[in-house]
Design goal:
alpha/beta, Rossmann fold, six-stranded parallel beta sheet, 5 helices, binds flavin mononucleotide, oxidoreductase, FMN_Rdtase-like_dom, FMN
Length: 198
């Protein structure tokens, strides 16, 4: 309508980090589905999600930091984390906690200057009987020191091994109800990110 300008929402860049290195990972399947929802004709406009691979990162060892510099894969990872406006974590639960590879990645990007500081985040998980819930709550605790701001709701815990099937044999999310709930997580992260940017 003439005279009524509709302000476009700024594009939010989300870095997605998966705690599983497994090829057919269900958690990476959640991230792939989130990427699809935010792309092209997907239902979530205004967000771009990039999966940031943590597999090339060495085990954290501060001896690898030479003259204040980081090994090349760590440096590349830190830059991607720093550039993002928000984060989406998807981690399996390993022995009632977040996965070792995810904690390693988080620790590398936390070395000064802390790349995570003052950014919004969401966490989802797929796993056994609690759907990875205990990993989520440990990650939220780690996020306190990182100065991450997690959205509280909605929560998404995917019980990967309960019927109906949630994933196909390649780890792609196929369950419509889980897709809908994942979409609600993304919309909540988007709204919270925009609020923090005001
Ligand atoms: C070392 C290890 C520990 C695990 N511990 C738990 C656990 O405490 N709780 C749980 O629900 N599942 C546990 N699992 C199962 C994984 O969370 C489950 O297989 C999940 O699907 C793996 O995620 P992914 O499909 O993204 O690789 C464990 C798996 C491994 C390899």
């Amino acid at each position: 309508m003439e005279g009524l300008a509709v302000a476009a929402k700024p594009m939010i860049k989300v870095a997605a980090v998966c705690g599983s290195l497994r090829k057919g990972s269900y958690n990476r399947g959640l991230i792939r589905s989130a990427i699809e929802m935010c792309g092209g004709n997907g239902p979530v406009a205004g967000m771009q999600i990039e999966l940031v691979d943590i597999a090339p990162l060495p085990f954290l060892n501060t001896d690898l930091e030479v003259d204040g510099g980081f090994p090349a894969p760590v440096d590349a990872f830190r830059k991607k984390i720093l550039r993002a406006n928000a984060y989406l974590f998807a981690s399996p639960e390993y022995n009632y906690s977040l996965s070792g590879p995810l904690k390693n990645a988080i620790d590398w990007a936390s070395r000064a200057p802390n790349c995570w500081a003052d950014k919004p985040a969401a966490v989802v998980s797929a796993g056994g009987n609690f759907g990875g819930g205990r990993a989520q709550y440990h990650l939220r605790q780690v996020g306190v020191f990182l100065d991450l701001h997690f959205i509280n709701k909605p929560e998404l815990f995917v019980h990967a091994f309960q019927p109906p099937p949630k994933f196909d044999s390649d780890g792609n999310l196929i369950d419509p109800d889980t897709k809908e709930r994942l979409k609600q997580v993304l919309l909540s992260l988007q709204a919270f990110t925009l609020r923090l940017q005001q």
